[in-house]
Write a structure and sequence with these properties.
By secondary structure, this protein is an alpha+beta fold. The protein has one domain: Chemotaxis protein chec (3-Layer(aba) Sandwich), CATH 3.40.1550.20. It has helices spanning 20-26, 45-55, 63-74, 91-97, 117-133, and strands at 5-6, 15-17, 30-34, 40-44, 77-79, 86-88, 103-107, 112-116. The strands form two sheets. Strands 1-7-8-4-3-5 form a six-stranded antiparallel beta sheet. Strand 7 (103-107) and strand 8 (112-116) form a beta hairpin. It is globular and about 45 Å long. Keywords: Cytoplasm, DNA-binding, Repeat, Transcription, Transcription regulation.
């Protein structure tokens, strides 16, 4: 499970060192793809395979499902960390997420997310107010 927030830097070759707490789960390979809110999702190969099986169930007759799958899967890029635990983020994905040198890598349960540090801070500031003001059950069975 991916938990926590880390602040690595992107190097001049588009590489980032994986947080130590994420390395074991991602050591054998991972998939980076476009996420929502202009971040990048990072899945272990096994989790991405499971996710792919679930999204394959979407009806082809649904334009919204086709559109989502095209955007999600066309950005998918397999990676294997090098000996220094670095992965390379392709230029197109760096542009999509607006990544600069300073990053925020967050744990989101079944995946990690890579954000531009400034964009993450802005998102978190906006969402923390909404989070503390929630008065009804958002996720069934939670609180």
């Amino acid at each position: 499970m991916f938990l926590g927030t880390f602040t690595p830097r992107l190097d001049e070759k588009g590489r980032v060192i994986l947080p130590a707490k994420f390395r074991d789960e991602l050591a054998d390979g991972l998939v980076i793809t476009r996420g929502q809110e202009h971040c990048l999702y990072v899945f272990s190969e096994a989790e991405f395979a499971e996710m792919h099986q679930r999204v394959r169930q979407a009806p082809l007759a649904s334009k919204q499902a086709r559109d989502y799958l095209r955007v999600f899967l066309s950005g998918a890029h397999p990676e294997t960390p090098d000996k220094q635990h670095r992965i390379t983020i392709p230029q197109g994905l760096r542009e999509y997420a607006g990544l600069d040198r300073e990053l925020a890598v967050i744990g989101a349960g079944s995946r990690a997310e890579i954000w531009d540090a400034e964009a993450w801070q802005k998102y978190l500031t906006e969402q923390e107010s909404a989070f503390s003001a929630i008065e009804e059950e958002v996720i069934p069975g939670m609180f």
